[in-house]
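Exercise 3.2. Students should predict the tertiary structure of the chain below and write it as structure tokens, then compare their answer with the key that follows.

Predict this chain's 3D structure.
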Amino acid sequence: MDMKGYYEDMIGLEIVGFRFERDEHGDDQGWPVFEVKDKQGHEFDLIVSRDAEGNGGGFVFVEGV
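Answer key:
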């Protein structure tokens, strides 16, 4: 899988919301979900996972703010 291309598809998206989404295992906080909109106005979710297999919610570092 071309991971560089996969992540480059996110360039230009606008974050319009955020939520935690619980899974069937009842994790403490669940999955971090960013609600985004592309330049054409289509809305969809970016879900942060700890790995590509979807073994639970993960963590994103925010640096330089």
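Discussion points: The radius of gyration is 13 Å. The longest strand covers residues 14-21.
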